[in-house]
Amino acid sequence: MSVFLSEEWLEELRESTSDLPKQKGVDGKVKFVITSSPLGKVQFCLNVSEGQVAKLVIGADKESDVTATFKYPDAESWFKGELDTDLAYMNGQCKFEDDYTCFMYRLRPLFSSEIWSNNLKVLLGNTQFE
């Protein structure tokens, strides 16, 4: 069982999302910044190409289209599917830098897909939260 947002967990996230079905036009690089976590500040970048996670870079990757910043409890809720992205943005639970339309529109078909949610449910079932 891996700890949420640990390097081991991020590798499992990459593996669980690497074989998603292709979706034309669902492309972008999202840097996630999670603050106030038990592991400190966690940063990673998802490189999405045609709806598939082509690459996951652990750490501060300077090449991203958008940066999404969450506090730890909000990140946990978002990955669990309990926090709607639109509401999180409007309530200040998620902040975006650079091209927020990448996250909110171009990548929505991935992040709101049933297969993304199902893959995360399996991953989160084997995740330790602090």
Brief synopsis:
This protein has helices at residues 7-17, 72-79, 85-90, 100-106, 108-111, 114-125, and strands spanning 2-3, 28-37, 40-49, 52-58, 66-71, 94-98, 127-128. The chain has 130 residues and is of the alpha/beta class.
Features:
32% strand, alpha/beta, 7 strands, single chain, two-stranded parallel sheet, five-stranded mixed beta sheet, Nonspecific Lipid-transfer Protein, Chain A, globular
Structural class by SSE content: alpha/beta
Q: Work out the helix count.
A: 6
Cα gyration radius (Å) = 13 Å
CATH homologous superfamily heading? SCP2 sterol-binding domain
CATH class: Alpha Beta
List low-pLDDT spans: none
**Fraction of residues in H or I helices:** 25-40%
Main sheet overview = 5 strands, mixed
CATH topology annotation: Nonspecific Lipid-transfer Protein, Chain A
